[in-house]
């Protein structure tokens, strides 16, 4: 007699695994990349993974730019910049593993609450200048600074994301200036629009000035219905102040939104500005942190070393509390209502804190020497005895269920064959599984009689 099978959804949940990460939902999608949330299978650490399609990169001759982007992100280690953790590649994709930032976009805050208070705007601007100036000191320029690229962490601090258009010194021409127009027009400096060659640092500071204006005004300083009209306003730095705009901030922004990059205020001068200085404390961090570019070089050299595969895998079925209680002999509620004898057990359960994969392979290794042929499918196994027993061949099925994060329950059930032979098999199998079992059912009832 077999005890009732719990009502467990029949379908297994599918998930995609890349290297040691399980991919989750999409956080954002652009022309060349998709960003997904992911979880490390051993540590449970959550990350964001930027996924690039190798074909698209090759087609658009962007290999060098992407390599630069990745190297750039590795060079930058600052508390207000999204950290690049590692890089992986499959045959068709590049995976950039990034620090996961949980507070959403700073832009959303403005969209939801409108303009920020003077103190809040100043705090984010101080963090922005701190991070941008640090990047500039490492010859790294962002060139696409805008509120959408400014994320907030769990503590509400700024995290600059997406150095996709940043450039390292290689991109300088002989005149020592950057060439390539890019970026979002509303935040772009006049010299970038005119493409007369520009310094990445002063162009980024212009964008910081536009950002500060947006944080305090709640709208853009330069906004026109046509791109030409917008460019005209930007060249001339033509904008107006809303009446509430504090004079200290007006003075500073006027010095940043100077259309002439040569006379525009520098970061060093911003640090000395009275409005900026109020309550400013520079971020504390290790400026000498080591940077290793081996993984970046390996994935672009065609080496197999960092090649990973993207696999679709099914996840063990998850059990809810009711299903668990109905299974557990220790908490067997049926005994509260029923007085009949416990039936002879032909199914057995144990729990394990090992991963589902380890559990499956341990069962396989333990069952084979006992003369069992093993068939596996996802998180289910069928073990078929090769010896003819009293009631034919012994056949046992197993399934792994996730009962809590990192806690699995394994159910073994006799499909056919003699129960005593099954009990004997279970006893021997248990010996082979002693390293993975956390808590096990007592031996099947008939063995105890
Ligand atoms: N969206 C884009 N990049 C992200 C990140 N690193 N963390 C959270 N959301 C993101």
**Helix amount:** 25-40%
Spatial strand order of the main sheet: 5-6-4-3-2-1-9
**What is the level-2 CATH architecture name of the largest domain?**
Orthogonal Bundle
Low-pLDDT runs of 5+ residues are 1-11, 164-183, 331-344, 443-449
How confident overall, as mean pLDDT?
81
Shape annotation: elongated
User: How large is the radius of gyration?
Assistant: 31 Å
Total strands: 16
Q: Helical region count?
A: 16
Q: What portion of residues belong to β-strands?
A: 15-25%
Structure classification: alpha+beta
| Major β-sheet profile | 7 strands, antiparallel
CATH superfamily of the largest domain: Transferase(Phosphotransferase) domain 1
Q: What's the end-to-end separation, in Å?
A: 16 Å
Bound molecules: adenine
Overall tally of structural domains: 3
- Which CATH class of the largest domain applies here? Mainly Alpha
Question: Can you give a write-up of this model?
Answer:
By secondary structure, the chain is an alpha+beta fold. The protein folds into 3 domains: 16-100, Phosphorylase Kinase, domain 1; 106-277, Transferase(Phosphotransferase), domain 1 (Orthogonal Bundle); 319-441, TATA-Binding Protein (2-Layer Sandwich). It is built from 16 helices and 16 strands. It has helices at 54-59, 63-75, 106-113, 118-137, 190-194, 200-217, 227-235, 247-256, 267-272, 274-277, 294-300, 321-327, 334-337, 356-367, 419-432, 445-448; strands spanning 13-18, 21-29, 33-40, 46-53, 84-89, 93-99, 150-152, 158-160, 310-315, 317-318, 347-352, 372-377, 380-389, 392-404, 407-416, 439-440. The strands form 3 sheets. A 7-stranded antiparallel sheet has the order 5-6-4-3-2-1-9. Strands 10, 11, 12, 13, 14, 15 and 16 form a 7-stranded mixed sheet that branches. Strands 7-8 form a two-stranded antiparallel sheet. Strand 12 (372-377) and strand 13 (380-389) form a beta hairpin. Helix 4 packs antiparallel against helix 6 (200-217). The longest helix has 20 residues, at 118-137. The chain is elongated and about 95 Å long. It starts with 12 loop residues before the first strand and ends with a helix. The model is unreliable at 1-11, 164-183, 331-344 and 443-449 (pLDDT under 50). Residues 27-28, 35, 48, 82, 98-101, 161 line the site of adenine.
């Amino acid at each position: 007699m077999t005890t009732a099978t719990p009502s467990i959804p029949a379908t297994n949940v599918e998930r995609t695994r890349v290297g040691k990460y399980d991919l989750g939902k999409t956080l954002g999608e652009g022309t060349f990349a998709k960003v997904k949330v992911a979880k490390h299978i051993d540590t449970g650490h959550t990350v964001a993974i930027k996924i690039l399609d190798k074909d698209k990169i090759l087609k658009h001759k962007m290999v060098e730019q992407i390599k630069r982007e990745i190297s750039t992100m590795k060079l930058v280690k600052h508390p207000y910049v999204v950290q690049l953790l590692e890089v992986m590649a499959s045959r068709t994709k590049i995976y950039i593993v990034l620090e996961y930032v949980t507070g959403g976009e700073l832009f959303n805050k403005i969209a939801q609450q409108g303009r920020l208070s003077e103190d809040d705007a100043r705090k984010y601007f101080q963090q922005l200048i701190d991070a941008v100036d640090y990047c500039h000191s490492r010859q790294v320029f962002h060139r696409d600074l805008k509120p959408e690229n400014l994320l907030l962490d769990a503590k509400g601090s700024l995290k600059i994301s997406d150095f996709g258009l940043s450039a390292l010194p290689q991109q300088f021409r002989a005149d020592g200036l950057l060439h390539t127009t890019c970026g979002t027009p509303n935040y772009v400096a006049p010299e970038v629009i005119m493409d007369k060659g520009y310094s990445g640092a002063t162009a980024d500071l212009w964008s910081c000035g536009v950002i500060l204006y947006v944080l305090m005004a709640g709208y853009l300083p330069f906004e026109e219905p046509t791109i030409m009209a917008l460019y005209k306003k930007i060249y001339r730095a033509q904008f107006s102040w809303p009446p509430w705009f504090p004079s200290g901030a007006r003075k500073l922004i006027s010095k940043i939104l100077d259309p002439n990059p040569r006379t525009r205020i520098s970061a060093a001068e911003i640090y000395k500005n009275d409005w900026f200085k109020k309550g400013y404390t520079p971020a504390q961090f290790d400026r000498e942190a080591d940077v290793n570019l081996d993984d970046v070089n390996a994935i672009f050299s065609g080496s197999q070393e960092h090649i990973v595969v993207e696999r679709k895998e099914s996840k063990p079925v998850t059990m809810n509390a009711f299903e668990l209680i109905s299974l557990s002999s220790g908490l067997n509620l049926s005994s509260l209502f029923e007085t009949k004898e416990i039936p002879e057990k032909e199914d057995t359960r144990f729990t394990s804190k090992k991963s589902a994969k380890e559990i499956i392979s341990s069962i396989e290794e333990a069952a084979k020497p006992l003369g069992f042929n093993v068939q596996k499918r996802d998180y289910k196994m069928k073990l078929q005895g090769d010896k003819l027993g009293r009631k034919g061949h012994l056949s046992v099925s197993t399934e792994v269920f996730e009962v809590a994060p990192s806690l699995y329950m394994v159910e073994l059930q006799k499909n056919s064959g003699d129960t005593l032979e099954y009990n004997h098999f279970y006893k021997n199998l248990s010996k082979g599984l002693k390293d993975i079992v956390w808590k096990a059912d007592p031996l099947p009832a008939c063995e105890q009689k």
